[in-house]
Design a protein that fits this description.
globular; 31% strand; Jelly Rolls
């Protein structure tokens, strides 16, 4: 797998803890698609753009980038906590900082039993932003934990952008299939 350090929501050497008070969300690093980071104005665009951003998040095309989220320390909870991973984007607010965050894609609720160490929690594709006229400059992952619940242990070891599937996703397929035969 080839990765880019500037496209790491959670770098492999810096795990993100999911342990906190009840109902506290945790955010990944923010990826700036157009500049060196929040607080800086974009200088390298053509045209007359009052609010610079990417029309489709990150050039959705072929191959479409994907976000791979891996558990470090296994998830544990004493009060049935779950986590929903939300892929979010925000436009430039005009001063080089993120505006309002919008959720573009999200996982279903993930339980502690599904979060064993080394497990790939999700593989989210880069999808076009919503609402459709959104021009995000900034991207992040939000780890949403419901109110009244918390994890007592658990980390995200990495959340990286990959350009292709590098896992053997067909390993769970049964091998007792037949291919239909067509006569010409």
């Amino acid at each position: 797998m080839i990765t880019d350090a500037l496209l790491a929501f959670v770098p492999a050497a810096t795990p993100l803890s999911l342990v906190g008070a009840d109902g506290v969300d945790f955010q990944s690093n923010v990826i700036d698609l157009l500049g060196p980071g929040a607080g800086t104005l974009v200088q390298n665009f053509y045209g007359n753009s009052a609010v610079p951003g990417q029309a489709d998040g990150m050039g959705v095309g072929d191959p479409r980038p994907e976000i791979s989220v891996i558990v470090g320390t296994a998830l544990a909870t004493g009060n049935s906590a779950t986590v929903q991973i939300e892929y979010q984007g925000a436009p430039d607010d005009g001063s080089g900082n993120p505006g309002t965050w919008q959720t573009f894609a999200a996982t279903p609720a993930i339980t502690a039993a599904q979060g064993a160490a080394g497990t790939q929690l999700c593989r989210l594709p880069f999808v076009p932003p919503f609402p459709f006229n959104e021009r995000p400059r900034f991207l992040r992952l939000n780890f949403n934990i419901p109110a009244g619940t918390h994890f007592t242990a658990g980390t995200i070891s990495s959340a990286l952008v990959t350009t292709t599937r590098d896992d053997w996703f067909v390993k769970q397929q049964p091998n007792n299939y037949t291919a239909p035969r067509y006569n010409a």
